[in-house]
Amino acid sequence: MIVSRAERAMNYAVLTVAALAALAPIAIIVITSLQPGSGQSGLQLSNYTQAWVEGEFSHYLRTSMLVSGTVLAIALPCSVLAGYALGTIRFRGSSLLFGVFLLGIMVPAEAIVVPLFYDLRTLGLTNTLWAVALPQAAQSIAFGTYWMRTYFRTAPRSLIEAATLDGASERRVLWSILVPIGRPAIVTMTVLVFLWTWNEFLIPLVMSPNGSFRTAPLALALFQGQHVQATSLLAAAAVLVALPVVIVYLVLQRHVIAGMLEGSVRE
């Protein structure tokens, strides 16, 4: 397809505007975090040190990492196994079962969080890691199953049939053939689940009322209430809380982009 110079210029203009719209808020937050306070001058990296110490973000970031790691450890293998079963194996009730997983995506956390709190309190799990991680793991499994089912349904059938004819078991077909070639889809799911778990606010707030498993976004909200007028400190704290997600995405961005584009180029 031949693209005229005017069309190409228009494409670049639209992309430039979109990039500026996406990057401008980030640039504003970073610049604000370096602004001097009263009686200071120049760029103030000390805002990050002060926010880190006063907000105790080392503790809350560790809690967020623990919760996110637990959710990933539960959700990833369950999603791969469920997606493989629903995507490649025909059995009675598979459509109904897949509808149940879709229900887990469509029902918002706000609709179930209160009865879920009472259930977990009856089991003595509130204010524990499991009260914060298990509801998010369930939500992530619902999405992950949908995501991996889509990948397995588009996997080359000839590859699966060839492996089966060579005597490979279902387990070997899954872990030795489909999972390695599906690494972009799995990495993309990992990044999305990590991002959603890291940014989750409501479930940690409700399931840990005494704050023993307060995550970084909750700590940021508490820090905001204590430093309403200190804009530079608030911006520095926001950067600290968002930094792990940005690092994870930058490290895995090649696989994420490949995973997003995989369906559009599959033959």
Walkthrough of the structure:
There is one protein chain. The chain is mostly helical and 267 residues long. It is built from twelve helices and no strands. α3 packs parallel to α6. The longest helix is centred in the last third of the chain and has 35 residues. The protein is globular. The mean pLDDT is 88.
| Element-level helix/strand string | HHHHHHHHHHHH
Give the strand tally.
Answer: 0
The share of residues in extended strands comes to under 5%
Structural class: mainly alpha
Which descriptor suits the 3D outline?
globular
Unreliable stretches (pLDDT < 50, length at least 5) are: none
Helical residue percent? Answer: over 70%
Rg computed from alpha carbons, rounded to a whole number of angstroms: 23 Å
The span between the termini is: 20 Å
Descriptive keywords:
80% helix; 12 helices; 267 residues; mainly alpha
Could you write a compact summary of the structure shown?
The chain has helices at residues 5-33, 46-54, 57-88, 94-106, 109-122, 129-154, 157-165, 170-181, 183-199, 202-207, 216-226, 231-265. With 267 residues, the protein is mostly helical. The two termini are 20 Å apart.
Topology, please?
Blueprint: H1 5-33, H2 46-54, H3 57-88, H4 94-106, H5 109-122, H6 129-154, H7 157-165, H8 170-181, H9 183-199, H10 202-207, H11 216-226, H12 231-265
